[in-house]
Amino acid sequence: MNEKCIPIERLRSDTALANPYIFRISELYDLRGIDDVSQPHRLNFSALIYVSKGEGFHYIDHKRHIIRAGTLLTLGKNQVHSFAKERTVDGYVLPFNCTFLSCGKNDPYFDLMIMALGHLNWIDNIGDDIGSLFETMVKEFASTSEFKAEIIRNLLRSIMLKVVVPTFQSEFNPVNQTIGSNDFYRLKNHIETHFYDRPSASDIALALGKSVKQLDKLAKDNSGESVKELVDDRVLLETKRLLAFSQHSISEIATQLRFNEATNMTKFFKRHTDVSPKDFRQLCRMGLHQK
Question: Which of 16-20, 107-111, 277-281 is modeled with the greatest confidence?
């Protein structure tokens, strides 16, 4: 891999893709080493991190989160995160392929769960009942039951639907979102796949078999934003990630994100953040993680 790029963490076996495994945070530090776990890396999967004791920090994208007993961190695919250089907490890390969450083709909750994973990132003071679900899951991972995978899936879905999705709904308050909004998930997935190309609303509408008017209504009803704003949000997020965690120059980042010139990316970035890419990078490297 190019040393300038953000390192990518992948699930390490075909078995892990189909069936997740749970780690203690302390076990992960011991297995991987402090230098490895504290290096910012991009996830090629999703994950939940539950803190059962201690207090410290965790970094997700360009933000530093305070974590303590009762904190639940949610990580969506492609997010960049790192553990602290000094381990002051313990708990559980559950990496999983997002398809493991699905209970079938017509799962009415799958889209909501996937959206919640990547939007929330930090939930504090979750109840003891969620901690009990993690403890039950740990025991189930050690079982030899033929129903093991399905039991773990349902425990994971219980955590998602009991705390993660409701918190997402209350904090982000979609205007008119309906359970099972598959079209909106298709829209978000298309943007995630093609944002480097900076597609217009017309391009996306054509790809998804919708009119621009239908697509904008879909976006507004589910997020409060237009299709263009959703694309801009994703480009802005990737710009922040690359500025904060890669070693690419600003000019190289502009090229990677398909800006005609670095000055165009600078104007785009300042319009959305009120700071220049150069200043944002310096703030991140000083440890002043910005929203």
Answer: 277-281
Q: Do the beta carbons of residue 33 and residue 27 sit within 8 Å?
A: no
- The region of weakest confidence among 98-112, 139-153, 234-248 is 98-112
Instruction: Tell me the CA distances in angstroms from 248 to 17, 77, 110, 269, 277, one per residue in order.
Output: 31, 22, 35, 16, 12
SS3 154: helix
Which residue has 């920090």 as its token pair? 57
Q: Which residues contact 261 (CB under 8 A, 6 or more apart)?
A: 254
Q: pLDDT digit string (tens) for 35-63?
A: 999 999 999 899 999 999 999 999 998 88
pLDDT digits (tens, 9 = 90+) for 90-136: 999 999 988 898 888 788 888 888 888 888 899 999 988 999 999 99
Contact at 8 Å (CB) between 224 and 233?
A: no
The whole-angstrom separation of Cα 253 and Cα 79 is 17
Q: Which fold would CATH assign to domain 8-172?
A: Jelly Rolls (2.60.120)
Where exactly are the structural domains of the chain? 8-172, 182-285
Contacts of 184 (CB under 8 A, 6+ apart): 111, 177, 218, 219, 221, 222, 223
Q: Cβ(289)–Cβ(58) under 8 Å? A: no
CATH architecture entry for 182-285:
Orthogonal Bundle (1.10)
- What's the pLDDT tens digit per position in 193-205? 999 999 999 999 9
